Amino acid sequence: MGQQISFYPFSKAIAHPQGVVGFCLDCIGIKIKPETMIDPARIHNTSLSNIQARVINQINQIVADDPNGKHCGKLQHRLIQQATAQLDSNPFRLTKEEFGLVEAEYNQVKTELATLLDDTFIEETLAFSSSEIDQTAVIQGLAQTAAVLAIQSRRDESSQT
To answer: CA dist 120 to 103, 114, 140, 153, Å?
Structure first.
């Protein structure tokens, strides 16, 4: 036992009726009753939008200059998502120029995966964000985020007194 490992493409796991967890349980032979599983449609796991990711990046760059600063934590991420939810519905993607900064490493990892696993593990479609990032939307997102974080900070202070 424990001498064999199996690899499965993520695309196969997410196609399972009970999602990735149901797929993993099936793979190890654990049968589950459908009524005990959480309905995958009820799980809300949204990724950051392009503007949200760029706002968080800007904040992290500013905070990185402060020796006592911390990067955005979970609460701040959630507040930023709430503050900027209406600004941009496009998912975060690198621009072609940004991808160019990591392309060599990406290709190296892709080559290594291709030698270890079959082609189903490296199926890909690369999509990029427009190089024309809406700076006005990023600035608006920063302003809205600052307002939301200030309100949250006041609430935190008043709850401690």
So the answer is: 21, 9, 41, 48
